[in-house]
Specification:
Order of helices and strands: HEEHEHEHEEHH
Number of domains: 1
Structural class: alpha+beta
Shape: globular
CATH superfamily: TT1751-like domain
CATH topology: TATA-Binding Protein
Strand content: 15-25%
Keywords: Signal
CATH class: Alpha Beta
Mean pLDDT: 88
Oligomer: single chain
Protein name: DUF302 domain-containing protein
Strand order of the largest sheet: 1-2-6-5-4-3
Low-confidence stretches: 1-16
Helix content: 40-55%
Largest sheet: 6 strands, antiparallel
Number of helices: 6
Organism: Roseovarius ramblicola
């Protein structure tokens, strides 16, 4: 019962976020991609996490004379949290540091998207109830909410 209540609380905390069948959580933004990404980066650093890279996929596409709607990825993490996952299963390093994609869809709506940490580690020797998974899930919800302007 506690698992059900915890899952419901996490789900409600991220509104208007939703997860599709593909385990990707999407959060609707009320700003453009650049502003949303700037807010996300500020929220991440403000929370004491480290930004490793900011990748501009649209700029990459333009560099080879191709078009892509504004699309950026922020790669970031907190070694105090991520290291615990890698201690439980070193292959967790394939999924870390965390990544959040900010993109504009075909209808012009801007979204933040990330993989649900619980699902991200599915199939690894990591307990679904590990405290660091709850911490990652909560942090992603808060950070993307701030970036989205909620």
């Amino acid at each position: 019962m506690r698992r059900v209540l915890a899952a419901a609380a996490i789900t409600l905390a991220g509104l208007p976020a939703f997860a599709g069948n593909d385990d990707i959580v999407r959060v609707k933004s009320f700003s453009d991609v650049a502003t949303t990404m700037d807010r996300l980066e500020a929220a991440v650093t403000g929370a004491g996490a480290r930004v490793f890279a900011r990748v501009d996929h649209a700029a990459g596409a333009a560099s080879v004379e191709m078009e892509l709607a504004p699309t950026q990825v922020l790669i970031f993490g907190n070694p105090k949290i991520g290291t615990q996952a890698m201690q439980d299963d070193p292959t967790a390093g394939l999924f870390l540091p965390m990544k959040v994609l900010v993109y504009r869809d075909g209808a012009g709506q801007v979204w933040l998207a990330y993989e649900d940490p619980k699902e991200m580690f599915d199939g690894l020797a990591i307990d679904d109830d590990a405290g660091y998974i709850r911490m990652m899930t909560g942090a992603l919800g808060k950070l993307t909410g701030k970036a989205a302007g909620q």
